[in-house]
Every structure is written in C-alpha cells, then in structure tokens.
Amino acid sequence: MRRPMVAGNWKMNGTRASVAELIESLRLQQLPAAVEIAVFPSCVYISQVLDGVNGIEIAVGAQDGATQAGFGALTGEVSPAQLADVGCKWVLVGHSERRLLLGESDEVVSRKFSAAQASGLKPVLCLGETLEERRAGKTLEVVERQLARVLDDQGIAAFESAVIAYEPVWAIGSGLTATPQQAQEVHAAIREQLSRRDRRVAEGVRLLYGGSVKAENAAELFSMADIDGGLIGGASLKADEFGAICRAAGN
After folding, report:
1. Domain ranges of the chain
2. Most buried pick, 40, 184, 194, 223, via CB within 10 A?
3. Fold exhibited by the domain 5-250
4. Beta bridge partner(s), residue 26
5. What's the pLDDT tens digit per position in 167-186?
6. 215-222 and 239-250 helices cross at what angle (nearest 10)?
7. Pairing between strand 5-9 and 122-127?
8. pTM over cut 0.90
9. Between residues 143 and 172, which one has the greater pLDDT?
10. In 10 A of CB 34, how many CB atoms?
11. pLDDT per residue as tens digits for the range 150-173
C-alpha cells in the first residue's frame, strides 16, 4: 500500500515574517498521520522552516539542487550535499518552470536526480506537457521522453527512493486543472512505463498530481487509482487550504 504524500512548493515566495506566520498556522492544523507531508520553501528560508516544524511531522525539501553532488567552484548553486547537511530530506527535480524558463534539458534534470540521490536526498521528479503539446496530442509522448531519460541514465532501482509528480504545464498557477480522468490517464501511463522495467518497483512508486490543486478538487483527484497525492503550489501558502488538501489525501 502506497502512503499518500502531499508536498507544498512555496516557489519564490515569502519573507521571514510571512514564513513564520505560515509555519505557526501549519502547527495548528490537524494533519493526518497517514499522509507524508513535506514543504519546499525558498532556499534562504530552509533553516527557518526546519526550526519551525521541529516536533511535527512535516519534512522539508529544497526547490532545486545542483548537478554536482559534492562541493566545488559552482558560484550561485547549492549542492545537494549542502541541502542534506542542513536537514533537507527532499528536493524537486525538473520542475516545469525550470525546464521552460531556465532551459533545463532532460540531461540536466537526470544529472540533478543522480546528484540528489548521491547526497542522500529523495528527488521529486517533475514531468509535464505544455498546452501546445497537449493540443497536438503529444502528452504521453512528452512525459514518456522526460521519464525515459532518467530511467535510462539511473535505472529503475533509483525509483525505489524517489517520487514522480505529473504537472501539466498549462495547469500550473492558471486556475485550470486536468480532470481526474485526464490526470489518471497520464499517471497510469507513467506507472506502466515503470512497470516495463520492473513491476514491483512500479507498484511502489508514489505518483503525485500538481496543477491548481485546491481543497475543493483534491478529494476527487486523489480518489483515482494511480494518484497518490499532490504537489501543491499556490494553495500551499495558505495553511487552512493546505491542511484541507492533506486531509483529503488521508481520506
């Protein structure tokens, strides 16, 4: 049985004051023990968040990590080893905003995935198609290509300690959401692609849906057979909304 997971991607948001307020509000939420919960703050607030969630069951991750596992001359980057050192457990890899706006290729994403695991972090591998690709009927082709690069480079066994998040690019921050049936179709295809390498590993990998998930649509999305939780963007900045989504995953 796969344990549900809800992850909050705070993106480039927050100040020390607003982060403290959000953490305080999260501590007041009734969060289901059956659901694994993680938050991904901006890098500069990771230590503050780690201190703030001490004593409650919320893990902390980073929104990105370098392609290099250790240390070295890579100005401006943050090594996965450094993230692990401060207490991170997770790291997002290949989020569409980084793929599209910052030009991260499938090769770079695969290297970041590898560096994260080499440093003891669990990667959340993000996959997803643009609106143009969906309209062209290329959704499954795009998602399969993105996943195949990591599978070919790292092997199926790497996914025993990783999570996959399907995020249709057209649904991120747009207010648009894939229907539960649309999301399930892609999640099922992802699991089938993994299964062709190793059925046991495929059955154990948690697949999250991301893209304008809210309290009112979370339960229906999470009821799908291959959707094991969500990667939540804007709604994760509101403690009551995020708590409700977590409780939906627990049901």
Report:
1. 5-250
2. 40
3. TIM Barrel (3.20.20)
4. none
5. 999 887 777 778 999 999 99
6. 20
7. unpaired
8. yes
9. 143
10. 11
11. 999 999 999 999 999 999 998 877
Active site residues: 95, 167
User: Which region holds residue 158: left if phi is over 0, alpha if psi is between -120 and 50, else beta?
Assistant: alpha
pLDDT of residue 10: 98
Type of residue numbered 38:
A
Tokens, residue 247: 């409780």
